Amino acid sequence: MATDALKNVRIRIERAAQKLGSKIVPDWMLEELVEPEERFSISINVKIPNPLNPLEKIPKKFKAVRVWHRKPDPADIWKGGLRYHPDVTLSDMEAHAIEMSFKSWIMQLPHGGAKGGIAINPYEWSKDTLEDVTLQFAKRAIKRGIMSPRIDVMAPDVGSTKIIMDWLRDYYIDYTGDNIIGDGVVTGKSVGKGGILGRESATGLGMHMALQTFCEAGEICLPKKKTAIVQGFGNVGSNFCKLAGEYNISVIGITDQFGGVYCPTGLDIDKLINFASANKYKTINGSEVISPTYMKASFDELIAAGADMFVPAAMEETITTSVAPKMNFKVVLEGANGPTLADADNILIQRGIQVIPDIYANSGGVTVSYFEWARNTRKFHTNPGILIPDNDETSVKTALQVMFKKNGNALIKVAKKYKIPYREAGYALAIERVAPDIKARNRMD
Ligand code: NAD
C-alpha cells in the first residue's frame, strides 16, 4: 500500500515551482497546485449472498472516494481513472488526481485531474456483486453531481475494466435519459457503447512513443535491439509487452503481484497473455511451465539481473531508496502512476539511470480517452491545436504519435533550459502551460 504518494507529488511540484520562480508561480498558486479542490466519500450498500446460506442475502458496505484537483478553465471537465482495489485511500487518490492534472496539462488536454476508487478486490467477488457495487456507486455519484459527461468523466484504472465502464455508461443513460451526449460520461468503453478503437492499448502504446521521442531527440541512447523487464501484466504492462516487438524490444522478464518469470533470450508474450487470462487472478505466476528456457524469478532477482530498461506498470512506490541502488538498468520508463519515491529519484540520477516520468510516459490512456470524450460530446473545438481522430486504429495511432512527439520535445526543451531532470521538467512544463489560465481565473496577474 502506498504511504508517501501525496508527499512525493507535492515535493515534485515544489521543486518545479522553485525552478520557475515566484513570478511564474506565486505562493498562492503553489498552494492551489499542491491541494485538491474537492474530495468526496461515498458509502455503497449492497446485498451479497450469505456464505453460510447462499439462498439468503446479507448487507455489505464498500467505501468509495473521488477527488478533484484543479481545472484551469471553468469549461474544462474533471478527468481520471476509477480504481477497484482493496487498498484505495483518500490520500493516494489525492496524489493521483494531482498527477492527472499535470499529465493532462503536459499533453495540452483541457482537463482538471481527478481520481477515485472503490475499496474492493474485484477478483474476490462474483460478476453480479461487482455489477451491483458499480451501479450503487453510479447512483450515488450521479445524485451528488459527480458523474456526468459535462463534469467528471471516469475511465479504467487498476482493477477496473471496459465492462465496468459499460455498466457505468448504461446506468447513467438509463438514470438521466441523456441519449445525446450520455456516452461521454465515461471513457474506455466498448466500441459498441461509444468507445474508441485503440483505447485499451493506448497507455502501453504511448509508452513506446514516449521512449521513441526521447531516442529520436538524442536524449536517450539505447541499442537498436533493446531488452526490457516489466513489472505488472494488467492492462498497461501486457499491452506494452504485446507491442514491444514492433519497437525492437525483447521483454526478458515480467513480475506481478504473485510472482515472476525470466528468459534472457525473450519471453513469448502471446503465450503469457493466454496463461494469465486462464486463471482467476490474471497472473503470470507459474508461467515458467510454458518453456524449459523460462525460469521462475522474484522481483529482486529481476531487478538485479537487469536489462536496457525497467518498466514499472503495476502499483505506486516500487522504486524505493532500497531498490534504486540495486537496479541494473539504463532507463526507467514509467507506466504506473507514482512508481518512484521522490528520495529514490536522486539515487537514480546519481547512478546515471534516465527516467521517462509517468506524467508524460503513461499519458497515452488519458489522451485517447480525451479523443473518445470529444467524439461522444461533439466537443471538437475545445482545443483547436488537437486533432480529434476518426474512430479507426490508424487515425488514433497517428493522432497519438503527434501528441507524444510535440509534447515530449517541449518537455526536453524545458529540461535543457533549466538544466533539470525530465520529471521536474514535466512538472515545470505543465505549470508553464496552465499558469496564465489559473491567473486569469483568479483575476490575478
Ligand atoms: P491492472 O489492474 O490491469 O494491472 C495491475 C497489474 O499490477 C497486475 O498485473 C497486478 O498483478 C500487478 N500488481 C498489483 N500489485 C502489485 C504488487 N504489489 N507488486 C507487483 N505487481 C503488482 O492495472 P493497469 O490498468 O494496468 O494499471 C497499472 C498502473 O498503470 C497503475 O499505476 C495505473 O494507475 C497506471 N495507469 C493505468 C492506465 C490505464 O489506462 N489503465 C493509464 C495510465 C496509468
TrEMBL record:
<comment type="similarity">
    <text>Belongs to the Glu/Leu/Phe/Val dehydrogenases family.</text>
</comment>
<dbReference type="InterPro" id="IPR033524">
    <property type="entry name" value="Glu/Leu/Phe/Val_DH_AS"/>
</dbReference>
<feature type="binding site">
    <location>
        <position position="369"/>
    </location>
    <ligand>
        <name>substrate</name>
    </ligand>
</feature>
<keyword id="KW-0547">Nucleotide-binding</keyword>
<keyword id="KW-0520">NAD</keyword>
<feature type="binding site">
    <location>
        <position position="203"/>
    </location>
    <ligand>
        <name>NAD(+)</name>
    </ligand>
</feature>
<feature type="binding site">
    <location>
        <position position="79"/>
    </location>
    <ligand>
        <name>substrate</name>
    </ligand>
</feature>
<keyword id="KW-0560">Oxidoreductase</keyword>
<dbReference type="Pfam" id="PF00208">
    <property type="entry name" value="ELFV_dehydrog"/>
</dbReference>
<dbReference type="InterPro" id="IPR006096">
    <property type="entry name" value="Glu/Leu/Phe/Val/Trp_DH_C"/>
</dbReference>
<protein>
    <recommendedName>
        <fullName>Glutamate dehydrogenase</fullName>
    </recommendedName>
</protein>
<feature type="site" description="Important for catalysis">
    <location>
        <position position="157"/>
    </location>
</feature>
<feature type="binding site">
    <location>
        <position position="103"/>
    </location>
    <ligand>
        <name>substrate</name>
    </ligand>
</feature>
<feature type="binding site">
    <location>
        <position position="235"/>
    </location>
    <ligand>
        <name>NAD(+)</name>
    </ligand>
</feature>
<feature type="active site" description="Proton donor">
    <location>
        <position position="115"/>
    </location>
</feature>
<dbReference type="InterPro" id="IPR006095">
    <property type="entry name" value="Glu/Leu/Phe/Val/Trp_DH"/>
</dbReference>
<dbReference type="GO" id="GO:0006538">
    <property type="term" value="P:L-glutamate catabolic process"/>
</dbReference>
<dbReference type="InterPro" id="IPR046346">
    <property type="entry name" value="Aminoacid_DH-like_N_sf"/>
</dbReference>
<feature type="domain" description="Glutamate/phenylalanine/leucine/valine/L-tryptophan dehydrogenase C-terminal">
    <location>
        <begin position="196"/>
        <end position="442"/>
    </location>
</feature>
<dbReference type="Pfam" id="PF02812">
    <property type="entry name" value="ELFV_dehydrog_N"/>
</dbReference>
<dbReference type="GO" id="GO:0004352">
    <property type="term" value="F:glutamate dehydrogenase (NAD+) activity"/>
</dbReference>
<dbReference type="GO" id="GO:0000166">
    <property type="term" value="F:nucleotide binding"/>
</dbReference>
<dbReference type="InterPro" id="IPR036291">
    <property type="entry name" value="NAD(P)-bd_dom_sf"/>
</dbReference>
<dbReference type="InterPro" id="IPR006097">
    <property type="entry name" value="Glu/Leu/Phe/Val/Trp_DH_dimer"/>
</dbReference>
<dbReference type="InterPro" id="IPR014362">
    <property type="entry name" value="Glu_DH"/>
</dbReference>
